[in-house]
Write a structure and sequence with these properties.
Layout: H1 6-10, H2 19-44, H3 57-66, H4 72-85, H5 89-95, H6 97-103, H7 110-128, H8 136-139, H9 147-158, H10 167-175, H11 184-194, H12 197-213
The chain binds iron/sulfur cluster (SF4).
């Protein structure tokens, strides 16, 4: 008796190794792999946190602005004294650009950053009543605040499921791969598509910390990586 083609054929889908069936299977496998990766990150670190010190949304915005092309450790050193004096845009304006520049002079690009922070503080007071807006588009209108900074502030200060793609996330996402892309925005939009909703809130921190401490740029430490069996990077470092 001839074998029935089954419900797939009835639905117009290929049953003889055709592309639609094969790609649906590949997509399901990829989704399962990515869900498993984030389940491991969550099990290892249920409440991941960033490493920048801050007091409130405003000081977080300042710290993230200062962190461009600088290390979190270096930023924290400078902001310790700064945030003891300043925790609002009004106080930053009272401090003034010259004193701010002096207090952050150990951080790269400090002159430009001081200018941006003073101007952003002025706009926060004049346009937003001294509050940091809970809105990515509004944040991006502030001087020195790009999409990455806005995404970090939305995620950490306001609990939004945004993913700020920095150099670590860009590398890790292309390597594993989770979402491939040639620009941070391509990777960000790809990650938003593939990361299950339940993991989106913390995905940013898990991926940054993974890239910073394990999946390092020059020599990823694959021998101690908790997702090594789920990672497809062809050039793994298997021994210390
Ligand atoms: S196995 Fe290696 S390349 Fe893959 S995620 Fe882990 S550290 Fe990175």
């Amino acid at each position: 008796m001839a074998k029935s083609a089954g419900p797939r054929a009835a639905a117009g889908l290929s049953v003889a190794g055709g592309a639609p069936a094969a790609s649906a299977k590949a997509r399901a496998a990829q989704a399962g792999r990515i869900a498993a990766i984030f389940a491991r990150f969550e099990a290892a670190s249920p409440h991941p946190e960033g490493e920048l010190d801050y007091i409130n949304p405003y000081t977080l915005l300042v710290a993230v602005t200062l962190s461009a092309q600088a290390t979190d450790v270096g930023v924290n050193k400078a902001t310790k004294a700064l945030f003891a004096l300043v925790d609002s845009p009004q106080k930053m304006l009272a401090l003034g650009e010259d004193r701010l520049r002096e207090m952050i002079r150990t951080i790269g690009l400090y002159r430009t950053k001081a200018k941006h922070i003073i101007e952003a503080s002025r706009q926060l007071v004049e346009r937003f009543g001294g509050e940091v807006p809970h809105d990515r588009a509004a944040l991006e209108t502030l001087p020195g605040v790009g999409r990455k900074t806005a995404n970090v502030v939305m995620n950490i200060a306001f609990g939004a499921a945004t993913i700020a793609v920095d150099t670590h996330i860009f590398r890790v996402s292309n390597r594993i791969p989770l979402a491939k892309g040639k620009t941070p925005l391509e990777v960000e939009l790809g990650l938003e598509r593939v990361i299950p909703d339940v993991y989106k809130r913390h995905a940013h921190h898990w991926l940054i910390l993974h890239g910073r401490y394990v999946c390092k740029a020059r020599r990823p430490e694959c021998w101690r990586c908790l997702i090594a069996d789920l990672c497809n990077f062809p050039d793994k470092t298997l021994l210390p």
